[in-house]
Structure formats: C-alpha cells, structure tokens
Amino acid sequence: MCGIVGYVGEKNAQDFLISGLKRLEYRGYDSAGIVTLAEDGEATLIRAKGKISNLEEKMAKAKRSDKTGIGHTRWATHGEPSERNAHPHKAGKIYLVHNGIIENYKELKNELKDFDFQSETDTEVLAALIASFYKDGEHPLLNAVVQALKLAKGTYGIAVVSENNPDEIVVARAGSPLVIGVGHDETFVASDASALVGHTKQAIYLNDGEVARVTKNSVEIKTLNAEPVSAKVEEIETNLAAIQKGGYEHFLLKEIMEQPESLTETLRGRIHKEEGTVRLGGPGLSEAELRKIKHLVIVGCGTAYHAGLLAGYYIEQFTPEITIETVIASEYRYRHAYIPKDAVALIVSQSGETADTLACLREIKKQGIKTIGIVNAIGSTIAREVDGGTYVHVGPEISVASTKAFTSQVIAMVMFGLTIAQAKGVRSSMLKPYIDEIAVLPEEIGKVLEEATEPVKRIADKYKTYEHAIYLGRDTAYPTAMEGALKLKEISYVDANAYAFGELKHGPLALIDDRFFEVAFLPKGDLYEKAISNVQEVLARGGKMIVVTNRDCDLAVEDVVKITTDIEIFAPILMNLASQLLAYYMTTAKGYNVDQPRNLAKSVTVE
Ligand code: M6R
Fold this sequence. Notes:
By secondary structure, the protein is of the alpha/beta class.
C-alpha cells in the first residue's frame, strides 16, 4: 500500500526521501514522487510511474541540496498508475502526500470550482482544499490543514509542505499510520517505522485525529479540535539487519529460512517445558477472567485468517466448553453478529494496520468485548487499540507473502488457548503433549527446511508450467491446505484453490484433469485412512498428486515430500513449510517478482 516519508533537518532531503521510499517498496506501489524545498521556498517536484529506480533516474537530472521534503509511493485507488496521478500533489504553493481515501472528494471537488485539477485523484482535491484555506498568520500551514481536514471524510495519513514555510512539515492521521522520528537537528516522518531505522531510534506514533507541525528540532501535536497533545516518545526496536536480505536472493526466502529463530522469539519466556506451563503477560487477563471465557472470536484477513482457523482447530482439542469462530474481517465488520459477553476476541494481524481487521476491532470493542491482539508490528494501530495482546516478535516481514508470521501467529494463539485451559483446570497431562511439541518446534522447523528444500525445488521445476492447482487436507491439514493455496496463487499466479478432502465429492472432483496438479497434506493421525481414500478418488481420475506427509508413503502418486519428524500434533505447521517453499520455487522458476507480486500490497490499509 502507499508509503509516506518526510525530512526536515540539516542534511540532504532527497537522499533520505529516496532511501526511505526504498525501505517502503515492500508495501507495494505503482508510482513514486518527492518534492523538496530550498531555503527560499523554491520547490523541486519529481514524480515517476513505476519503480523508484525511474524516479532516481529523473532525480539524477534534478539534484538538489534542499533540507526539507516529502515523498510517496502510490498504490493506485483513484485513477490509473501514472505520473500525473502520482504524489506529491500540488495546489498553489502546497504539496501533499496522502495514504488512505478521501470518501467525499467528489463533493469537495464541486466546491472547488476555480481549481484546475490535473489528476483523477482524491488527494489532489485535499491539496486544493488546504490551499484554499491558507492565509498568512501564525502557523498558516497547520491552520489550513486543520480546517481542510475538518471537512474531509475518510481515512488519511498525510504530510504537507508549503513553499511559504520551507522549514516545516505538517502531518496528520485518521486511520492510516504516521510516525515521527526524532533526531538531533533533524526530524523524520514516515508511514512505517522501517523507513526510520538507522536514522533514529526515537519515534512518536500519531493517533487518529491528531495533527502535528514538525520542524528540525520541534514536534507540536494537537487534536483537530486544537487540544494540545503531549508526545510520547517510544523506542524503535528494529535494527538494520532485520530489514536487509542478509545474503538471500529474496526477502521471501530469508523469511522462510529464519523461522527457527523467529518462532524462538515468539516462545521466549512464554513456554516452560519443565513445568509444563505457558505464561503470557500481554493479554492482561486474570485467572478468573480466563476461567470465564466461553467463546473465542478470531478475526483476520488472508494468512492471518488461516492462522486463526488452524489455531481454532487446536484450541478446541484441549479447551473444554468453549466455542470458537474464526472470521474474515472484511465480512465480519458488516455482519450483525451477536457476541456473547463471556467471549474474548483475538485480533490477528502481522502489520497491525489492516483496515478491515481494525474496523472489526473497533466494532467488537463497542460491544464491550475484551480484545486481544496477535500482532507483529510493534506500536501499530491494532497493537495500540486492543485491550491486551501477545506480540509474535518475528521481526519485520518484508515480502508481501506472509510466512514466518503465520507460523508464529498459530503458535501464539495456541499458547493463549493453553493459558485458558490451564486456568480452567484442564489436567496438565492433557496439555503436556502440546507444550512439549511447541518447545521443540523451532528446531524441527530447521530440520524440515533443510530436508525439504531440494526435493521441493525439483518438484517446483516439474510443475512450473501448470496454471491450476488443488490443495487438499482434512482437520488441521485443511487450513494448512488453504494457506498453501493462497501462497501459491499470490506469488506464482497459479489458480490454486483449497478444499477439505470431504468436500471433493460435493463438486471439486469434477475439476480433475491434466491441466491440474494436486497437493495433499497427509499427517499421521485418526483421519489418515479417510484422507487416503480421498487420495485414491483423485488418482482414479488421473490426478497428478504431490503428497506431503510425515508417514512412510507407498501411494502411487507422482511426488512425495517426506517430513521426517517426531512431531505429530503440529505436523501441519511443518507441512506448511513445504507449501511456502513450493510457492517460492515455482515463482522463481517462472521468473516472477517474488517479493512484490503484481496488484498486491503488504499492508492493506484501505477497505
Ligand atoms: O498484516 P495482516 O496480517 O493483517 O495482513 C493480512 C493479509 O493482508 C495478509 O496475510 C495477506 O493475505 C498476505 N499477502 C498473505 O501472504
């Protein structure tokens, strides 16, 4: 999704803006732009369609030593990706970059009849509105922005500069993140703290409804109603290594391979194998409150939703008298679902900024239900708005396809389920197998990645020309199949869909022909034999099947990925590693952009 950066200080603004925009590339974008201001206010505006390298080429011919500026990567919502529609947008002497959507831009545009609009964007309308309110006086830019925002409806994170005020930036947010980095004689602005890493560790996260005037050594924040806000400075924990490829060709491969370490971080201080207990501080629920929980609502989108589904299957295995509903946030926010008072909602999001998930969180809170975040991005909006939470601590996930977050989200939720079970007095002998397996899971993940990489790479090469795939599983292997299909489709553009094995005969079996390959997950367990019968049904119809299993497999299938492990309960999580690798290697074999698949963004901050 769109990204914002800004700089005001003693150094070259163009340098920071370009490096900051590159840090935000992973979020997905289709055009980019920067504007910088010289001391006398002269502006240099550069915009380009496509990659930041295109912007850099243009910048090489317009090098400036200006010390104030703002920049943007745009992911088109209103108007096609083009230079004309790229930000910053100019209105008079005002330049604006904007993340989000101004919903009433048409009405506002009608009121601004005299303005000669150059683009199709909602952002240019907001820029023109700000320009229309600009009047000399104290803090004229800040006042103009406040007046304009009082009329704007929708979501925004914005940064604004004016040729008349070349030593300040005005920023504001409503539903789209903005962080201010405080340095020595320099202040940074970004929509994502990763742009600030290496420049400063001191950050102020703006809240919805706040606006700030930023100079090189001051940050004044107030609400749109002019109430002053005292800034809370927080530490940025991310380091540079965490946002670099570290010798890997792609972030995706790095993130798949670092799962032994990232899961270890999720477990740190929380899982106590010797005692056979789990301790989570973050949710902040007392034993009595945990005991009272009768329902869990798990909310997420995409991979976070799949993580919630899988965790739900596990939690209901060991937590008595509890019902679990895992829901897709974009659907749930408009349902009229009744949530019983003895429920707790788990809000699952890697980025902590997903618009639909955030909207659900707010709706659920309105109903007086306790909300617990299962979030990765520290200081993100969801993390700040939930009542309590468990950070998954996997470090920055840069590749658009979510991998390491999934593994840790599932386990973080299972650990939360275990704390409920402990409080409800479930026998420790019942919980021990879960705790024992979680404790060794990071090591087992390491072994599986080592064992499976080469075979999966060969299989990916064999199927690289296929355009259709079916993923199949039962029970805990079903959400695993769903996640595998999502991974393959989003980066390799193979039309991959997942079905519960039992559903095959109800329709999908009709699809099987030589245009498809199938991926079946067959974990050991009570339902193994049933799944085998389903495999036979597919083979009998000429299916070309890849089986992923932790059992010896003598089925007459095309390919087998053997998962050698003593782990049984969480074998589907290990099998999911094979899916991640298959998606990765299919995509590299096809020659597509692994980390930034077409049409997608890392953090979906619009509805
Ligand atoms: O940041 P979130 O976890 O809230 O993101 C949710 C989805 O947008 C995300 O998981 C998406 O489905 C991924 N691209 C899947 O790999």
